[in-house]
Write a structure and sequence with these properties.
By secondary structure, the chain is mostly helical. The chain is built from 9 helices and no strands.
Length: 134
């Protein structure tokens, strides 16, 4: 998996996708391969493929991380209802998922639900280390 991180870090998403597609063909039962593939597709602006990967990963094994990443994809295409559902699912699996709380805050902000947005946005202090110094 080191090569995936290297390719991704260099912005070579197609190369990372190629490696992950090979891994998927060898071990289609591993949820994290599908999630990592989804991340690469999302970084490569192929949101539909990213969504399919995260949904498949969730069929194999539910995780807060995959729900959050799927929610992020839906947020990018402005399907706020689906994004909200995904972030809530992530929080149900891991109530301490700071990323899911912060992303949920952005959904509430877009809708003008300021009270809910601020409550969720408080999680930024756990998500972003640098915010502890403000």
């Amino acid at each position: 998996m080191v090569s995936i991180s290297c390719f991704s870090g260099l912005g070579k998403y197609n190369e990372a996708i190629e490696v992950l597609e090979k891994a998927k063909s060898l071990r289609p039962d591993l949820d994290y391969i599908h999630s990592n593939l989804g991340l690469q597709y999302r970084s490569n602006k192929q949101i539909d493929k990213a969504i399919a990967c995260f949904e498949y990963a969730l069929k194999i094994k539910e995780s807060a991380e995959s729900w959050s990443m799927l929610g992020g994809c839906y947020g990018e295409i402005r399907d706020l209802s689906k994004a909200e559902s995904c972030f809530i699912a992530a929080i149900k699996l891991n109530e301490n998922s700071a990323a899911a709380h912060v992303d949920l805050a952005s959904i509430y902000q877009f809708r003008g639900q300021w009270k809910e947005a601020w409550s969720e946005y408080e999680w930024r202090f756990k998500l972003y280390e640098q915010s502890k110094f403000w």
